Amino acid sequence: MAEPQPSLSRTLEAVTWLLTTVAVIVVGLRIYTRAIIVRRVGWDDWMMLLSLGLMITDSIFVQISVHHGLGNSQWTLQEDDAITAIKWDYLAQPPAIIGPALGRISFAMLLLNLIGTQKARRIPLYVIIVSQFIANTMVFVLILVQCKPIESLWDYRITGVCWGLESQSKIGFFQGALNSATDLTLAIFPTILVRGLQMKLSQKVSLAILMGLGVFAMVGSIMKTVYLPSVGRRENYTYNTAPLIIWWMVEGYLVVIATSIVTLRPLFKKRTKHTGASGNTHSIRTIGSSGPKGYISTTDPAADDFPLTYMGTETGMGQPSVRAGYDSSNSHELTERNGEHNIRKTVSISVNVSGHRRS
Question: Cβ distance 132 to 104 under 8 Å?
């Protein structure tokens, strides 16, 4: 019998719960920003919450598996512990597949709200949403049906009929390649979005980088694909699959974290007020305002920040309209009193949204 290899259990636990904690904080701040500051929670936010919920479920299943010996050489474990560890390892795979997929779909939905109605830009995002849903759901189902009875997946004492390792590897590599390509596409896509914005080049670059953090999830996806063959090997399963699990945790949680960070900009935005003696300039740019839902960015050429603000309409409500301007009747008043000039300048800005007026 070979010497037992150094345990990976502590590494598994550390990576799992560190990423879980960071993801919960980031998504919590995202929901706070949308619900309290922006006052609009969209479908992409609910999708991200569901993604996070599945990843937390994955973390719990992995922790149970670690408790029974996952990360240790299998021959050092009691038979029942080894079987239980492998069982929870397999049960952790479905949420680890669907969770990141929903995170990518959430980010694609966010981008759809930002790019307007141009079909050339929207079609690739629809392709990403559909392909992520179909491909990862298919892999989820195939995991459940690859062996009959399903218990033979983790209990080698039960005789079952399973697909060949070649078929399992092909499915896994296809999924890994698709997810890696999707992460890369979603990381590059924001550069198209910010290219037409009226802002400084430095602001464009920083925003594109912030929205392209998903490229790090691509690294996790590639590494997970590299370790996929370990799933098809029965020998020393509790140890050999530990690196795979570490990388699927990295992939899943980086999708959640990276695609949520960009939504936190309104939380950290510096509110500045610009006034001038000769006049004021207010610039309002609407991205995708011709569609039913969109995001608006209010930019000033002199400003250093680019706040991203959700703007949408509910069913049955009209398209919001934004009007900003001076009240010409009261803008400038010049009076002479006791030989002295008193100058008073009044700026009136009104905003109409769906028939409701705020001044």
Answer: yes
For residue 311, pLDDT beyond 80: no
> Helix (H, G, I), strand (E, B), or coil: what is residue 295?
strand
CA nearest 28: which of 263, 226, 355? 263
Contacts of 312 (CB under 8 A, 6+ apart): 40, 42, 113, 292, 293, 294
Relative to beta strand 284-287, strand 147-148 is unpaired
Closest to 86 (Cα-Cα) out of 62, 115, 109:
62
| Cα gap 115→175, rounded to integer Å | 27
pLDDT at 326: 41
Q: Which two tokens stand for residue 18?
A: 């560190």
Beta-sheet pairing, 293-298 with 284-287: antiparallel
Tokens of 64: 């149970």
Residue found under tokens 């050092």: 76
Spatial CA neighbour of 55 closest among 252, 224, 218, 244:
252
Closest listed residue to residue 189, CA positions, set 122, 135, 287, 258: 122
What digits encode the pLDDT tens for the residues 79-92? 999 999 999 999 99
- pTM over cut 0.90: no
Helix axes 9-32, 242-261, angle to 10 degrees: 20
Residue 108 CA to residue 85 CA, distance in Å, equals 35
Tens-place pLDDT, residues 232-267: 677 888 998 999 999 999 999 999 999 999 888 888
Separation CA 191–CA 208 (nearest Å): 5
